[in-house]
Amino acid sequence: MVAVEVVTVTDQLGDGYDVVVVGGGAAGLSGALMLARARRSVAVIDAGAPRNAPAEGVHGLLGRDGMPPAELLARGRAEVRGYGGHVVTGEVDTASRDGDGFLVTLADGRVVRARRLLVTTGLVDELPDVPGLAGRWGRDVVHCPYCHGWEVRDRAVGVLATGPMSVHQVLMFRQWSADLVFFPNDVVTPTDEEAEQLAARGIRVVPGEVAALEVVDDRLAGVRMADGALVERAVLAVGSRMVARSGVLAGLGLAPVPHPSGVGEHVPADPTGRTEVPGLWVAGNVTDLTGQVGAAAAAGAGAGGQINADLITEETRAAVAAYRDTRVAELVGADRRHGR
User: Fold this and answer.
1) How far apart are CA 234 and CA 179, in angstroms?
2) How far is CA 325 from CA 88, 217, 330, in A?
């Protein structure tokens, strides 16, 4: 059952915060939770379009395996609010520099200032243009064996090639099902070594172009080839091209770059999530394209801790400077009183 959320004052956006988190998925909420527990003022601004919305459950997440994505996020929002954090529905249009902080402008015109910014906007899956495929995404068209493999175990699985990682993908799915068909789709040509690997693992290769998916009674029935042949399959695995949702960063001069693996485009950052823009961190799929929910949550929490430490350093530096000024003033005053 999905948790019921109660709208409170924490749904209202204030004028300024220590940290604004753009994106309210696992990474963003985990970062906000860490910061709120550190007694930081924090607001999460979320557009409400999670990547895993079509999935029935989140898998591989210890203690929450199988939980519906909407329930997981509802629990996370409640936890952040429980420590005084604000969670606001809205779409961030731009972020810009404002002195040593940031101005975050929403699509509806609201503006909020942040000393630090954590962007956890995730990614967009770009799917091959095959009729019937997009409508099955997250149901019987899947991508990740660790996310979906157990649920499709021992079923008739097909793997549709989309790039150089597709042979690796089909060999991975062999761990969960022996009834496997590989569709190169005129996109990839397995090397001699790869062809031998596929044959040795009992994976059938169906050459030619894929024309469409065949759906019967709201279930995938098979893959229709361009020559009219139907290859019966209950599940199709597809490697999407993953592209970071990074439009909000354009005003800060930060653009996505090709991921080293060739699977898409990400926003580069150091292992803590710190970017080349001072005061800006990223976490989750916007920078780690292949990270699952657990990895995204861990990255968000880590980034939250790093941001808090960065703010402590800034505040300590300012306190030391003020302390020195006070001490100098006291010494000058003492000298004057003693005629020195």
Assistant:
1) 10
2) 40, 76, 9
| Nearest by Cα to 114 from 138, 132, 94, 140 | 94
How many other C-beta atoms lie within 10 A of the C-beta of residue 303? Answer: 31
d(CA 147, CA 59): 6
Q: How far apart are CA 16 and CA 308, in angstroms?
A: 16
Contact 173, 180 (CB under 8 A): yes
Q: DSSP code of 5?
A: P
Residue 77 CB neighbour total at 10 angstroms = 22
332 burial (CB, 10 Å; 0-12 / 13-18 / 19+) is exposed
What's the DSSP call for residue 74?
A: H
Residue 116: partners with Cβ closer than 8 Å, 6 or more residues away:
18, 19, 20, 101, 102, 279, 280, 281, 307, 310, 311
Instruction: Convert the pLDDT of each residue in 202-242 to its tens digit.
Output: 999 999 999 999 999 999 999 999 999 999 999 999 999 99
pLDDT tens profile 258-298:
998 889 999 999 999 999 999 999 999 999 999 999 999 99
Query: Which pTM does this prediction carry?
Result: 0.90
